[in-house]
Amino acid sequence: MSRQIITGLDIGTASLRVVVCEYKNGDNFPTVLALVKKNSRGLRRGYVINAEETLESVRVALADAERITKLKIKKVVLGIGGATLESKLIDGSVSVSRPDAEINSLEITRAMESAEATLPDATNRNIIHRLPISFKLDNKKVLGRVEGLRGNKLEVKTLFVTCSSQHLRDLIKVVEEAGIIVDDIVASPLAASYAVLSKLQKVSGCVLVNIGSQTTSIAVFEENLPISIQVFPLGSTDITNDIALGFRIPLEDAERVKRGEAEGTIAKKKLDDIIHARLSDIFEYVEGHLKKIGCSGLLPAGVVITGGGSGIGNIEELAKNYFKLPAKISSPEIATNSKNQIKESVWSVAYGLCLYDIDEDNEKGGMQKSHHTPMVFSVVKNIFRELWP
């Protein structure tokens, strides 16, 4: 019997991460077979600027993963992030065409297509995910499943996650030139949520803040569904740059100071002020978006912080004070059932990509899909058709 191997590929601006997992029937979570981290080259704020350098980074990382696992990696689940990733909530509606007026998947698809037809600023962008968030039938909100109900007018609020067509095309091309099939594409903030958020947090309402090197991404959840995904052009590298300027030290030394490896050599209050100022800039982006979507101060499960910038200074306390919400750094132990335990939350996207792929293929305990899920993730083939005629 063939082994079910899943490989998540997270191509970040500063680091490229590969997680190889194996899923066995009966397991709630996969076993981690390999963790590979390499420096990324040829990217800026998440998008490719030098394809040859990025290709070499991908090849080296995948070769290491194959060496560790003694397996040939043929396909990956690819995370897509970067400054061009964003989402929009759009309303659509249709008259029910079936003679018995019963709602089925076709009627839902038609309603979502009517929403997509009004999606603004769609030129040069590709849809990564389409997710129905809520339904109305004959002007009444539907609680639970809409399939099987009867009515005359179906309305749907759909979340569309999009990114730059060029950005997506460049990333896919790099991976394919490395001899690897892109089996699926997932928005990185959504992938990270699979690894670090509990169902209770998603149901109650929370925002996952992933602070990367040059970008910060967020995913906002309510009632166990993502209602907004956004990326902002600030990250932990901006803090490093501020420290280098503030203390007039080389970038390498500034990075060590930021990580707390050079305490006692610089003025702590000045360092705290520099870090707090830049983190406040990042939080200002997040808070501005929460206000825009009507969620400011209204997320009971609060702020969950992950990514490479999550360990900077007293970020947890600063987030609590800034957002006036509960705040916590995500648990670093996000894969504990194998010898390759993941001890750092910077792996959340790559590992989450593996969990996502299992969740799509297997409805099982601990990772069951919502009844909306098939329409969310059945878009990868359409993406390829849109990118290449």
CATH architecture of the largest domain: 2-Layer Sandwich
Counting helices, strands and paired strands, the structural category is: alpha/beta
Distance between the termini: 37 Å
> What is the CATH fold-level name of the largest domain?
Nucleotidyltransferase, domain 5
Largest sheet: spatial strand order: 3-2-1-6-11
Number of strands: 16
Largest sheet: 5 strands, mixed
- Return the string of H and E elements: EEEEEHEEHEEEHEHHEEEHHHEHEHHH
State the low-pLDDT regions, or none.
362-379
Please give the share of residues in helix. 25-40%
CATH homologous superfamily designation of the largest domain: ATPase, nucleotide binding domain
Mean pLDDT: 88
Give me the number of helical elements.
Answer: 12
Overall 3D shape = globular
Gyration radius over CA: 21 Å
What is the CATH level 1 assignment of the largest domain?
Alpha Beta
Domains (count): 3
Strand fraction: 25-35%
